[in-house]
Amino acid sequence: MQPLTNDGKSNVWAAWSPNGEQLAFTSGRDGATDIYVMDAQGREVHRLTQGPGRNQAPSWSPDASRLAFMSDRTGRWQLFLMRADGSEPRQVTVDTTMAHNPVWSPQGTKILFYAGSGTGNDQVFTIEPNGKHLTRLTKDVEFHQNNVSKTIKTNNIYPSWAPDGKDILFCSNRGGSNALYTMKADGSEVKRLSSNLIFFGRWSPDGKKIAAIFGRYPHTAIGIMQKDSKEPVWITPRLNAP
Known about the structure:
Layout: E1 11-16, E2 22-27, E3 34-39, E4 46-47, E5 55-60, E6 66-71, E7 78-83, E8 90-91, E9 98-104, E10 111-116, E11 123-127, E12 135-136, E13 141-145, E14 148-152, E15 156-161, E16 167-172, E17 179-184, E18 191-192, E19 198-203, E20 209-216, E21 219-226, E22 233-234
Antiparallel strand pairs: 1-2, 2-3, 3-4, 5-6, 6-7, 7-8, 9-10, 10-11, 11-12, 13-14, 15-16, 16-17, 17-18, 19-20, 20-21, 21-22
């Protein structure tokens, strides 16, 4: 394991460029929360945003020409786009709640994200880069027993696209604790993948494996599991993670 940043500041939400030659990331190194880019060796660091507000969670477009990101420059977390050099920022979502963690689709036609009011009932959406055709993909769970129906509120966060764009990976508490689920790109066929406590996962480039963060902060560990397997191979010490 090799650190790419060593400035003593918080450097998070790193995202590889499509060609693997650059990393966009969020940092507080200059006293504000902004987005930077560096080469794969951790050199040639350039600042892309300089406020207003906090700017974080960058995601590259498939052609590497643009970055989607979240910002609270309007007073509420919303999604924005900018060119890969930081120029021409523009707002994508105009939401009465808060929009988080954009992820470009492999085809570049949609942006995946989750939104909510911070009450533990976030939902997954897609929107086109031009801000049109907002579509909700997840919903609360309907429970039926003994002629009684009840709606159970669910929290659905940190979605990501499968490399082929046909499936979406996300974290949800719909089963009682945070676990990984998949669904089709239209929100159908929701399936639980993991039996462990997980709050973040990402596909491998070939779509056969999933890297995930297991446990509950600060007792977390990173593991890799096959798409059709519930048990991970640990790549960091487990500490007290389940």
